[in-house]
Amino acid sequence: MSEPARFPEALLRERCETLLTRAGASPADASAITRALLHASLVGVDSHGVRLIPHYTDMLRSGAFNPTPNRTLRQTAPAAAMLDADNGPGHPASYEAMTEAVRLATKTGIGAVGVFRSSHFGAAGAYALAAAEQGLIGIVTTNSDSAVCLFGGAVPFHGTNPIAMAAPVAGANPWVLDMATSSIPFNRVKLFRSLGKPLPPGVAVDTGGHPTQDPEKAAFLQPLGGEEYGFKGAALAGVVAILSAVLTGAAIDPEMAPTDAGTAQNVGHFFIAIDPEHFVGRAGYDAAMTRYLTRLRGSTPVDPNHPVMAPGDREWKEAADRTEHGIPVDPDTMRALGLSSH
């Protein structure tokens, strides 16, 4: 199988923003959506990158995403706020919510913002990173429509319900975790379908609840931990559902309309920002974080040719490569963006 064609970030940014504005998004919202998608594409999370543009333009045109949302932010306590996303795209609402969480945290040490009446927001790590880039720790969760069975369950219940966290590191790229509580995100199943590649074992099941590696037969996912330890992933998905939906008033996973239903979903997100200055202090935090990562990366590996890495190391290396050599784009997305490999 040939490698996907690669394209420069600037070209993809222009194509994505153009298609989103043509579909009805404001220039500011198109820019925020593209910012989040390119973050994912640069760090190698292609399932949540520019390949989502056709889906988002369809949602904007159908009215499933409100193309002209009137987002409303309301501070409810010294360190808390709520944001009504008015059924618009989740990306601009999420950047706005994390900006507010950071503002609150710089005053009180910690800030939390719940978002409701939102929609799919792409890769959660994009918004955690927005806090880390300002010197704060960022934590992000979101729920989604049912796509993952419970441990021992035969039908989907939770969404893929990711958790992301980013922590600043003095003089270096942030420490970044961005993980689904499912075995894999369902968008990765769709990516494998486009690439014609089999799924890894133990991540998906067919309509009968039986494990499958055929992406065309995959109906829903297994929780993180698979058949033996999936109770851990299912419980973490519940943590995300409580923070993102129960606490915000958004739809809980099994009551949410499916992504492809063409209607508003009332997705919930939760954003936390923590300012180290109000805890150990900036100098103490920077010194301890540097010491921690030095010892982590210096830990003895099983294979001397593959040193131990911190969360984010692999992604930052991939981002450097893609910045230099271009971002790979699968054939379906190339067609949607009007790109040619020649």
UniProtKB/TrEMBL annotation:
Q: InterPro entries under this entry? A: Mal/L-sulf/L-lact_DH-like_ah, Mal/L-sulf/L-lact_DH-like_NADP, Mal/L-sulfo/L-lacto_DH-like_sf, Malate/L-lactate_DH-like
Q: Which UniProt keywords apply?
A: Oxidoreductase
What's a single GO MF annotation on this record? oxidoreductase activity
Query: SUPFAM superfamilies from the xrefs?
Result: L-sulfolactate dehydrogenase-like (SSF89733)
**Superkingdom of the source species:** Bacteria
Q: Which family does it belong to?
A: Belongs to the LDH2/MDH2 oxidoreductase family.
The protein, known as: Oxidoreductase
This chain's source organism reads Acetobacter oeni
